[in-house]
Amino acid sequence: MPIISVVNMKGGVAKTTLAINLADTLVRREDCSVLVVDLDPQFNATQALISPEDYVAKRQAGGHTIVDIFDDTPAPAISAVAHSSKPTLALKDLKPWRIKEDFDLMPGDLELYRLEMGGGQGREQRLKRYLEEIKAGDAYDYVIIDTPPTPSHWMMAALLASSGYIVPVKAEPLSRTGIDLLKSVIDRCSQNFGHPITCYGLVLTLVETNTNVFRDAKTWLDGDKFWSGKRFENSLPKRTAVAAAQGNQQLILDLGDDVVKRALTGIGQEFLGRVDAAEG
Fold first, then answer.
1. Any idea what the CATH number is for the domain that residue 91 is in?
2. Are 199 and 187 in contact (CB under 8 A)?
3. d(Cα 8, Cα 36) in Å, to the nearest integer?
4. What global pTM score does this model have?
5. Could you give the number of structural domains in the chain?
6. What is the pLDDT of residues 134-163, one digit of tens each?
7. What is the CA radius of gyration of the chain?
8. CA-to-CA distance for 160 and 147, rounded, in angstroms?
């Protein structure tokens, strides 16, 4: 069961859009079962998949969230935190939420901000342990983690749980510096924890294909020592309708834009080929 982090330290690169729509196309076009883990404290992936009313109702009914994975503190010690008034559960007992057939979500939670992740606590390993429980049950073909857009303990937890990562990148000069910095952060995490992690590739997002900026970005990536060969041939076009639709829990395959739907389907097929090749 490959576990993939969608990661970039720069916001506004359609990271969440890529994560949730990649999962959706794997389910709907490739007959895969997928779990999305929303590890971004802003929980945008969750908001794009579940209406506010349904989220509140599910939480009130005792639905688990990402906080339950990381919160290993006995409830009485943090009784001021409403979310943590219930007893701490074993990782194996935490259940993702069903979005639709073969598509589950471990939803995000604003309460993640309240948890401290200090050195020596071991919390950064809890997502890895949880997904090992999931893997043992053989419930999913793939797990996709939507990560926060800044270096943090939460990003580290995602990387430690992952077999590989993909990088969404806007076709702009500033992004070049950002992805090289991202690579150094990932390499450091991998070396410090003895956890090798594979770069499955890089997806250009929010692209306008008939521009010099797009052409220059492709040329630079294809000529770079590390990123050469890692760029997906398919890229995600810029569409304001995609962002607007996500506010109503609609995904790219729900829209009538055939160009962006074909691009997404191509990304999904490339993703499968790259992960399968890396996994051997």
1. 3.40.50.300
2. no
3. 17
4. 0.90
5. 1
6. 887 778 999 999 998 877 888 889 999 999
7. 18
8. 12
